[in-house]
């Protein structure tokens, strides 16, 4: 390359570097990524649709008696002989409904057909269930049994994951959060081996939610 050609190339490079490249606008990280669903009943419907879409089994319970009926029918349909329940309030509730359950860890490893737990929140955006180790169910009852059954209330439905985490902070305090928090989105699934979908490889094969309506009755 001649000196003239080299100077020409260098001049073009210098001219290019002098040009100011317009920068994109700074994104507003405070703006929600998705539009928020409407509050109230519409949010519950949004959660139910998302939960079923990711593979969950959903039951809406209008009252505690309705919950007893649906849980009893589900146990009969799935032939669940060993339903483990460890949370005191859940035990009291099932006793009132004459639902048979296993209240301690006897033969848990060998016969954990299903576990019934509560949860911290329900995320409408993703159909996820937020659970923690702070309940009497601990870490194992939502993970080890073949079926994870959950009793939740309509008042626990939130829009996004961030809303659920804020509920945890309000409930336990920012310095005393549970040692384990987990978002469960549908049954456990993996396709690591030959791209074949397998359910229950790393957790419950099915997730079943009984959503109890605890909204105040409308007054006329």
Automatic annotation (TrEMBL):
<dbReference type="InterPro" id="IPR037171">
    <property type="entry name" value="NagB/RpiA_transferase-like"/>
</dbReference>
<dbReference type="InterPro" id="IPR024185">
    <property type="entry name" value="FTHF_cligase-like_sf"/>
</dbReference>
<protein>
    <recommendedName>
        <fullName>LUD domain-containing protein</fullName>
    </recommendedName>
</protein>
<dbReference type="InterPro" id="IPR003741">
    <property type="entry name" value="LUD_dom"/>
</dbReference>
<dbReference type="Pfam" id="PF02589">
    <property type="entry name" value="LUD_dom"/>
</dbReference>
<feature type="domain" description="LUD">
    <location>
        <begin position="109"/>
        <end position="211"/>
    </location>
</feature>
């Amino acid at each position: 390359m001649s000196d003239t050609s080299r100077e020409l190339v260098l001049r073009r490079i210098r001219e290019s570097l002098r040009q100011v490249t317009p920068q994109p606008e700074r994104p507003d990280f405070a703006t929600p990524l998705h539009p928020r669903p409407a509050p109230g009943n519409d949010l519950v419907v949004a959660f139910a649709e998302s939960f079923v879409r990711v593979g969950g089994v959903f039951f809406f319970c209008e009252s505690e008696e309705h919950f007893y009926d649906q849980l009893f029918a589900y146990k009969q349909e799935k032939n669940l002989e060993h339903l483990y329940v460890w949370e005191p309030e859940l035990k009291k509730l099932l006793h009132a409904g004459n639902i048979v359950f296993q209240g301690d860890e006897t033969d848990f490893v060998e016969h954990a057909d299903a576990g019934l737990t509560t949860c911290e929140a329900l995320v409408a955006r993703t159909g996820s269930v937020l659970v923690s180790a702070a309940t009497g169910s601990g870490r194992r009852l939502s993970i080890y049994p073949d079926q994870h059954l959950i009793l939740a209330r309509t008042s626990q439905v939130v829009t996004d994951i961030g809303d659920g985490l804020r509920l945890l902070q309000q409930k336990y305090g920012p310095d005393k959060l549970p040692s384990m928090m987990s978002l469960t989105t549908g049954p456990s699934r993996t396709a690591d081996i030959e791209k074949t979908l397998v359910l229950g490889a790393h957790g419950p094969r099915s997730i079943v939610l009984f959503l109890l309506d605890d909204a105040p009755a409308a007054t006329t």
